[in-house]
Amino acid sequence: MDYPFGRMKDPVRRAERYRKVADEYSELAEGASSPSFRAYFEHIAQQYREHAEGELRNLDQDGAADRKPAS
Q1: Is residue 70 in some structural domain?
Q2: Which residue in 27, 39, 59, 60 has its CB near the most CB atoms, within 10 A?
Q3: Distance between CA atoms of 41 and 33, rounded to whole angstroms?
Q4: Neighbours of 55 (CB within 10 A)
Q5: pTM for the complete prediction?
Q6: Is residue 6 part of a domain?
């Protein structure tokens, strides 16, 4: 299976893609025919939101490490 995020080297673009997928799953949750499907889709959406936050957090940490003065 081709992993759609694997070739994205830019963490900001990867985070944007994760957010887009999260929005798609949120829409599925809204239109779900049962509470169990709604919960399932919303759970997946939340996981993608967390992935997006993690990508941006890593970017912030990497940027902070780059800005630290050499000892």
Answers
A1: no
A2: 59
A3: 11
A4: 22
A5: 0.74
A6: no
DSSP 33-44: SSHHHHHHHHHH
For residue 19, give Cα distances in angstroms to 44, 55, 56: 11, 11, 11
Give me the residue label for tokens 């080297």. Answer: 9
**Is the CB of residue 48 less than 8 Å from the CB of residue 26?**
no
Structural domain harbouring 60: 11-65
Report yes or no on 31 lying in a domain: yes
Residue 15 located in a structural domain: yes
Specify the number of domains making up the chain.
1
Whole-number Å distance between alpha carbons of 35 and 44: 14
